[in-house]
Amino acid sequence: MTTLLIVFTCIIALVLLISWAKFNPFLAFLIVSIGAGLWLGIPLNKITTSVQKGIGDTLGSLVVIIGLGAMLGKLVAESGAAQKITQVLMRTFGEKHLQWALMVTGFVVGIPLYYNVGFVLMVPLIFSVVYQYKLPAVYIGLPMLAALSVTHGFLPPHPSPTALVSQLKANMGLTLMYGIMLAIPAIIVAGPLFAKTLKHIRSEPLQTFQSKVIPAEQLPHAGNSFLTALLPVILLTITTIIPLVTTLSGPSKQANDFISDPVIVMLLSLLVATFTLGIHTGRSIKAIMDIYGDAIKDVALILLVVAGAGVLKQVFTDSGVSTTIADSIKDWPMHPLLLGWLIAAVIRICVGSATVAGLTAAGIIGPIIPQMHVNANLMVLSIGAGSLFFSHVNDSGFWMYKEYFNLSIRDTIRSWSMMETIVSVMGLIGVLIMDIFV
Predict the structure, then answer these.
(1) Nearest to 190 by CA among 140, 152, 143, 148
(2) pLDDT (tens digit, 9 = 90+) per residue, 159-210?
(3) In the 8-state DSSP scheme, what is residue 21?
(4) Which InterPro entries does this one have (predicted)?
(5) Contact yes or no for 338/428 (Cβ under 8 A)
(6) Residues near 273 by Cβ (< 8 Å), separated by ≥ 6?
(7) Is the Cα dihedral 291, 296, 301, 303 positive or negative?
(8) pLDDT tens, 264-288?
């Protein structure tokens, strides 16, 4: 229990530094991470290595995606495409059902799209609705983010569920089918239903996605707006489906793998948008590049905060915290699916990364699954649900949401952390019910 006490103390210290002492979050992360490394016994000469690796691994996969996504989002907002998309959605679903429209969009987009790509792509759409119709940002946006989160934790081809399928020798198709069945009620409860309790939360989202209202006759065509804004989704969907319907090899496989990389997808989408929403609408290259420059300035702090969360996660990983916690509870007498969920949930709370939590839990549970007599597909989903439990200050997703929506830590926990917890618990309940029938 000493390890758990250290982790808990470090998390409390981080919260106090940011909320009470008003430290810059990135600086607070560095201070707490170095202190945690010393306390957990990482050698002095290895702590800076953990810091550098945490920053490098986190930003290496995110900095280009967040940067390109911010540029695309800024152009979608400034060109009037977001305004046009919002008008079409409002006419189709009406203001009363707009949450459900965004939730369905988030689920469809989230299946082929990596979470961070989906987040930075969909946030401008959320904010355009918020600014145009004067609706509460958290109330409107959380259902879509709940849908993105569920697909990230439950459904292949996302990295964690895909890796779990392989580790636990489950069936990819069955896991996806069961996962969709679990995802729908989880999203509904954690999204529109839970969001009804959050209307009072005040939020002033990032100005980068707030654009002036453009006269209707100057807006881009609806087809252009939807196609350009959703081009990353279209590209990823196509490159995901192609290998499922035909066998690729040699140059064709290399080309598909190259185009399906999120960085290439976002770059191609931005280049297309530069023409369709920029040059095609009468803007000069210089004016378009100025928009992109402003977008990068607006997300610079987000990148630093996300990097800080990566440092703390890496320190916990390098110190062996996740393995220690998992080993201490793996022999507890309980239902195997509940045990898998619990191991992943505890590691998630302590380490922050859903992927690390899921893969560590699978490494503990995997060797003993044959003795457990449990459905491997359901175990994948149980661990995936556990890995989403209570995202907080050591999770980069927590900080992306907080900074994009410009919320206090208290309101971020009240909305984001509780949404993730509801998703996780609903997933567990669904898995236990499904275990009765399959």
Answers:
(1) 143
(2) 788 888 888 889 888 898 999 999 999 999 999 999 999 999 988 877 766 6
(3) S
(4) Glcn_transporter
(5) yes
(6) 72, 75, 76, 228, 231
(7) positive
(8) 988 999 999 999 999 998 999 999 9
